[in-house]
Amino acid sequence: MTWSQKTDERAQAIIARYPDPRSATMPLLYLAMHEDGHLTEDGMREVAARVGLTPAQVQSVASFYTMYKRDRTGRYLVSVCTSISCMLLGADDVLAAVSEETGVADGDTDEDGLFSVEHAECIGACGGAPAVQVNYELVEGVTPEQGKALCAWLREARPEVVLGDEMQELFGGQRSFEWGPSETAGAVGPFPAFEPYGTAKEGR
Ligand code: FES
User: Fold this and answer.
1) How far is the CA of 38 from the centre of ligand 1 (A)?
2) How do residues 174-184 score in pLDDT, each as one tens digit?
3) To 10 degrees, the CA torsion angle through 114, 118, 120, 123?
4) Which DSSP state fits 137?
């Protein structure tokens, strides 16, 4: 496989930051996901060739972390935290509501490739439980009704860039902290928003 010129340039720039190319394995796995929408066998082989590891070594890294999606993933990955703080404040009901609204079971992706739904372990927003992420952009204090409304909005508005602050304003409740700086860049796909990888974009 060949990556686009832009992805190729990004990969080269990232590799050049490190004394040893293999240190770039994890960033390059995100580039591979961005290129194909999820992590493919070809994508992992491409990463291996670029960082000087074997495909098996790259796969062993990719398979360790849940954020490297090796199966087809929807345009909007909705992750509902079901760890203890969120669970005590109704996360199971939020997850059920999200599944009902999207028609997608926990761990699954719909036919159209619009939604993937998953439960997640603690996402570091316990003070704003129950917490939800869309493409790893955070929304806190989400009730089952707000979870449904969030998914209905994603389906109708189909935002090209998913912004945590925007979703918080529209569908969130109690937050962990109110003093964080607002962010104008968000995620452009079912992977985290990183400006150097091209997976972040200004949204408004
Ligand atoms: S338990 Fe849900 S964010 Fe920590």
Assistant:
1) 25
2) 999 887 788 88
3) 20
4) E
Compute the distance between CA of residue 79 and CA of residue 194 in angstroms, rounded to an integer. Answer: 18
Extract the tokens encoding 88. 């005590």
- Domains by residue range for the chain, with CATH: 5-62 (1.10.10.1590), 76-196 (3.40.30.10)
Q: How far apart, in Å, are the Cα atoms of 13 and each of 17, 18, 24? A: 7, 10, 10
Q: Is 84 in the pocket of ligand 1 (CB under 6 A)?
A: yes
β-pairing verdict for 185-187 and 115-120: unpaired
- For ligand 1, say whether the CB of 89 is within 6 Å of any of its atoms: no
Q: Is 87 in the pocket of ligand 1 (CB under 6 A)?
A: no
pLDDT band of 120, cuts 50, 70, 90 = very high
**Each residue's pLDDT tens digit, 18-68:** 999 999 999 999 999 999 999 999 999 999 999 999 999 999 999 999 999
Tokens of 114: 């619009």
Residues 105 and 97: their CA atoms lie apart, in Å, by 10
pLDDT at residue 177, as a whole number: 86
Tell me the pTM.
0.95
What Å distances lie between residue 58 and 9, 71, 120, CA to CA?
20, 16, 23
Q: Which residue type does 92 have?
A: D
User: Is-contact 196 10, C-beta < 8 A?
Assistant: yes
Candidate of 82, 86, 92 to mutate for ligand 1, largest count of ligand atoms within 8 Å of Cβ? 86
